[in-house]
């Protein structure tokens, strides 16, 4: 006999399915960063690797936050299947061009999801997604800064070494901001 699962949750099946798609996108983000971190570490770009490993943890947290929300709202969060990862990059710069492109795609996905929830009158999920909207705005800004390092410093001579040093400073700044936010909370 079919049970009326819709009485269990105010999440509509469409919202639940779209949230699960976003879970997968955050999981993919995490493993993209992990793969890029390993590529950088392998080539001795140690600050970039540290930045990317750190971001792997961030993206995992984004995925988990969504998973916990879906389940708490009475839905069923699905652990994502991660396939077709990329393991090779043609250059150091290509890693960061890829990050910016990917973060823009994630921002668009989150905006579309928030728009859908608003139209469905799922204001709780719409409100929950505001955190992701802000997070994406910050992440896109960081990704743009990273790409700009390549434009400003250039990769000639000691350029790559200097870029890697600057990435280290950006990571320190991010960690300091996180610590300050933690203190405020
Ligand atoms: Fe999940 O924050 Fe970027 O992708």
Structure notes:
The protein has helices at residues 13-42, 46-72, 92-119, 123-128, 130-153, 159-184. 28% of the residues are buried. The protein is 76% helix and 0% strand. The chain has 6 helices and no strands. It has a single domain (13-180), classed as Ferritin, core subunit, four-helix bundle (Ferritin). The chain starts with 12 loop residues before the first helix and ends with a helix. The protein is an all-alpha fold and 185 residues long. Bound molecules: hydroxy diiron-OXO moiety (OFO). Hydroxy diiron-OXO moiety binds at residues 26, 29, 59, 62, 103, 106, 135-136, 139.
Distance between the termini: 48 Å
Bound molecules: hydroxy diiron-OXO moiety
Total domain count = 1
Report the mean per-residue pLDDT as an integer.
94
Uncertain regions spanning at least 5 consecutive residues: none
Summing up helix and strand content along with how strands pair, one would put the structural category as mainly alpha
How many H/I helices? 6
CATH homologous superfamily label: Ferritin, core subunit, four-helix bundle
How is the CATH topology named?
Answer: Ferritin
How would you spell out the order of helices and strands? HHHHHH
Helical amount among residues, as a percent range?
over 70%
Overall strand count: 0
Biggest sheet record: none
CATH class: Mainly Alpha
Overall spatial form = elongated
At CATH's second level, what is the architecture?
Up-down Bundle
**How much beta, percentage-wise?**
under 5%
Q: What is the alpha-carbon Rg in Å?
A: 19 Å
């Amino acid at each position: 006999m079919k049970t009326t699962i819709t009485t269990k949750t105010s999440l509509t099946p469409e919202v639940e399915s779209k949230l699960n798609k976003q879970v997968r996108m955050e999981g993919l983000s995490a493993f993209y960063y992990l793969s890029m971190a390993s590529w950088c570490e392998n080539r001795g770009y140690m600050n970039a690797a540290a930045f990317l490993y750190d971001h792997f943890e961030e993206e995992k947290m984004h995925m988990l936050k969504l998973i916990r929300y879906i389940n708490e709202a009475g839905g069923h969060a699905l652990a994502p299947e991660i396939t077709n990862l990329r393991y090779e990059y043609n250059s150091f710069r290509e890693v960061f061009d890829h990050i910016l492109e990917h973060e823009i795609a994630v921002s668009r996905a989150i905006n579309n999801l928030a728009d859908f929830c608003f139209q469905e009158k799922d204001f709780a999920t719409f409100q929950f997604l505001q955190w992701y909207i802000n997070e994406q705005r910050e992440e896109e800004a960081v990704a743009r800064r990273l790409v700009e390092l390549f434009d400003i410093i250039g990769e000639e001579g000691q350029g790559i070494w200097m870029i890697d040093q600057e990435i280290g400073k950006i990571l320190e700044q991010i960690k300091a901001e996180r610590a300050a936010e933690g203190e405020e909370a």
